[in-house]
Each structure stands twice: as structure tokens, then as C-alpha cells.
Design brief:
96 residues, alpha+beta, two-stranded antiparallel ribbon, globular
Length: 96
């Protein structure tokens, strides 16, 4: 995982990843919002980590994607559509 973060996102520590809000363009570091817990998995566009949200204390999975890669936004929109179609499940978040 560390190698992937270094190579794909050009940072040494996940806490230093700069997160960009695709709607507002606002940038902030991962460590300002989350406490990293563990690596959960990787895919074509990025990876998923377990983290604790600092404001709420909630433990969650955080998907980190590289929006510079062609097709990323399209795939995320499709994923959200699929998640919207799944009936309520205590193991999944509600996607509006």
C-alpha cells in the first residue's frame, strides 16, 4: 500500500494526501479530517482505507481516487447510481 500511495499520489504518508472537493475546488490534507487506521483495498482508480472521522469519531471506509485519470468521474457516477438502487442495508451508507 505504501508503494502505491508513493507512486500514484506522490506522498510518503497517507495523512499528507491533498484532498480536493470536486465541486468547490477546496483543498485540504487527509489528516485534517481523518485518522488513518488501516488499508482495506485498491482498485484501478485509487484505494480504500479505514479511518476515523475526527469531528464525529465515526469509523468508516474512505475511498480515495485520482480524478486526473480518464474515466474516473464517470465510473464514480455509475457506482453511486448502483448504490442508490440497493435497498437499505446496515452495512452500506445511504447515497442520495
Amino acid at each position: 500500500m505504501k508503494e502505491m500511495v508513493r507512486e500514484k499520489f506522490r506522498v510518503k504518508h497517507i495523512g499528507d494526501l491533498v484532498l480536493k472537493d470536486v465541486e468547490t475546488g477546496a483543498k485540504t490534507k487527509f489528516k485534517e479530517y481523518f485518522e488513518y487506521v488501516s488499508f482495506l483495498g485498491a482498485g484501478a482508480f485509487g484505494f480504500v482505507v479505514e479511518a476515523i472521522e475526527k469531528d464525529s469519531g465515526n469509523r468508516m471506509a474512505v475511498k480515495i481516487v485520482d480524478i486526473r485519470l480518464k474515466g474516473t468521474i464517470h465510473c464514480l457516477v455509475k457506482e453511486a447510481e448502483v448504490l442508490r438502487s440497493i435497498p437499505a442495508n446496515p452495512n452500506l451508507i445511504k447515497v442520495n
